[in-house]
Amino acid sequence: MVKKVNVGDIAIGEGRFVLVAGPCVLESLPLALEVASEVKGICDELGLRYIFKSSFDKANRTSIHSFRGPGLEVGLRWLGEVKSTVGVPVLTDIHEPAQAVPVAEVADVLQIPAFLCRQTDLLVSAAKTGKPLNIKKAQFVSPYDMRFVLEKVKEAGNDQVILCERGTTFGYKQLVVDFRSIPIMRSFGCPVMFDATHSVQMPGGLGGASGGDRKFVAPLARAAVSIGIDALFMEVHPNPDEAKSDGPNMIALSDLKGLLAQLIALDDLVKSKLGYVDIEEVLPR
Q1: Could you give phi then psi for residue 136, rounded to 5 degrees?
Q2: What is the dihedral of CA 168, 172, 173, 175, to 10 degrees?
Q3: Tell me, which GO biological process terms does this entry list (predicted)?
Q4: pTM for this prediction
Q5: Torsion of CA 273, 181, 232, 239, to 10 degrees
Q6: Which of 48, 45, 39, 51 is nearest to 17 (CA)?
Q7: What are residue 90's phi and psi, to 5 degrees?
Q8: Distances (CA, A) of 164 to 64, 73, 122, 143, 181
Q9: Could you please report the per-residue DSSP string of 134-164?
Q10: What are the extents of the domains in the chain?
């Protein structure tokens, strides 16, 4: 039985998938407001629940010279503006235990980056805020091992947890999605999110920056929805080729509505006719 995660009046874990979307990093307040407003309008029209996502600090960029974002203080102020002006919940990453409490004062969902999903102190600090958590499965971690990540936050008193699939390392500078991970992680009793844009990332593929191939976002998203997911994560930008982070794997804001319409039709069909592809909770022998 999957336990719903409640983000305000949004229930993740029942009915149609929830969209989590926004630019990879907070580049400016006007851009964040533009993206949040446009995506909310699209979601309202399509009957989709929406959470805005963007990072105040990209602390794991390939190069020390890469743009990281406005930082904690300014970034939280911008996220608060998006939340109050557009009227949507917000999700953002934390990278250090000390960030958990101040970020929880603004953000509705705290996200644990994939590289940090086994950092016990970070997980416990995030869990103790009482806020819902989105924990990304690391590129090097088996979906079965996310059970132990989940146990860490539950031991800290928080069962409002989403687990997120975002691809697995496949040789150098490539990721591949093992779709078995979706029912495996969902069998642990929590909703599962699919990150359709980071799954097409090519880590370090541009030398001092990550590359990606956005043409695969749509087919991977359709595959995940056909299995049955509770939330869909996609990074969007008005002009991805000019984005300051993850541009190659982000999708253009102008392409979002058409793709979401396809995914909603598939999601409704799957859940009304077939249901989730669930498995019994099991650990490998």
Answers
A1: -85, 135
A2: -20
A3: keto-3-deoxy-D-manno-octulosonic acid biosynthetic process
A4: 0.94
A5: -130
A6: 48
A7: -125, 150
A8: 27, 27, 17, 10, 9
A9: EEEPPTTS-GGGHHHHHHHHHHTT---EEEE
A10: 5-274
In this predicted model, what pLDDT tens digit does every residue of 141-192 receive, in sequence order?
999 999 999 999 999 999 999 999 999 999 888 999 999 999 999 999 999 9
Residues 6+ apart with CB under 8 A from 36: 22, 52, 82, 86, 88
The yes-or-no verdict on residue 71 having pLDDT over 80 is yes
> 1 vs 14, 81, 186, 221, 276, CA distance in Å?
11, 37, 9, 24, 12
Tell me how far apart the alpha carbons of residues 203 and 159 are, in angstroms, rounded to a whole number. 31
Rg of the chain taking only CA atoms, in angstroms: 17
Task: In whole angstroms, give the CA distance from residue 45 to residue 281.
Answer: 37
Pair of tokens at residue 8: 């305000």
| Residue type (1 letter), 162 | I
* Residue 195 near residue 163, CB atoms below 8 Å: no
Question: How far is it, in rounded angstroms, from Cα 222 to Cα 278?
Answer: 17
CATH topology of domain 5-274: TIM Barrel (3.20.20)
CB 167 within 8 A of CB 201: yes
